[in-house]
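User: Hi! I have a protein structure encoded as tokens and I'd like to know what sequence might fold into it. I'm fairly new to this, so please keep things simple.
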């Protein structure tokens, strides 16, 4: 069932789905000051800035999609509001090699409210995701990363840990907004359900025909 407040069609339950976590503790002021930074950081241009954070968010998605055995293609020119195209490497139900598209955003200051995350999306970007009429389903992928870039990843011989998580949202059931008299900085707040945790399994769920039906309706 579509939820007009949060958008999308959540596949995961909202009750009891989240582990005990202090969401505010890992965001805000970086934990590692420059006086404790390793030597290589001094020669690393843009370490921890918005561009670096955005690149981390996109690679976070690529890592998940690769683990899900999906083909991942980067859109080199950001003209249509798409960062990644994800393709199914085989047959999904009755459809051969279906594909979806994703716009990726990454934030270190999430506005978390119980079962959803409030995120101000530029109207231009919102309209590139909202409504029907697209060639294939599109999704917003919101990556939540720590404020301290030194804690984005932790590698050992046993595992590679990326922090913290990503969530998805479908806006095809929402109406695009008029751009008349709107500045390029105007935003529309979206409510990304925390039930929509992006995982290997939920990535495969996004290829369901119900999302393609929303695009073609």
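Assistant: Happy to help. Inverse folding works backwards from shape to sequence: for each of the 217 positions I chose a residue that suits the local structure. Here it is:
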């Amino acid at each position: 069932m579509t939820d007009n407040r949060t958008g999308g069609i959540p596949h995961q339950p909202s009750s009891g789905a989240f582990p005990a976590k202090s969401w505010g503790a890992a965001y805000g002021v970086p934990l590692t000051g420059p006086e404790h930074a390793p030597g290589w950081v001094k020669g690393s241009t843009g370490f921890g800035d918005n561009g670096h954070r955005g690149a981390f968010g996109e690679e976070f998605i690529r890592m998940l999609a690769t683990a899900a055995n999906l083909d991942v293609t980067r859109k080199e020119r950001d003209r249509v509001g798409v960062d990644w195209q994800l393709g199914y490497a085989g047959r999904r139900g009755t459809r051969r090699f279906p594909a979806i598209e994703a716009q990726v955003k990454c934030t270190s200051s999430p506005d978390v409210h119980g079962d959803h995350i409030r995120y101000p999306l530029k109207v231009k970007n919102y309209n590139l995701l909202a409504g029907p009429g697209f060639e294939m389903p599109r999704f917003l992928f919101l990556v939540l990363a720590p404020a301290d870039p030194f804690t984005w990843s932790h590698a050992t011989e046993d595992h590679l840990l990326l922090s913290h998580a990503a969530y998805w949202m479908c806006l095809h059931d929402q109406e695009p907004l008029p751009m008349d008299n709107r500045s390029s900085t105007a935003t529309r707040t979206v409510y990304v359900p925390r039930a929509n945790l992006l995982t290997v399994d939920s990535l495969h769920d996004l290829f369901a025909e119900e999302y393609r039906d929303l695009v073609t309706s």
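A useful reference point when you look it over: Confidence is low (pLDDT under 50) at residues 1-25. Feel free to ask if any position seems puzzling.
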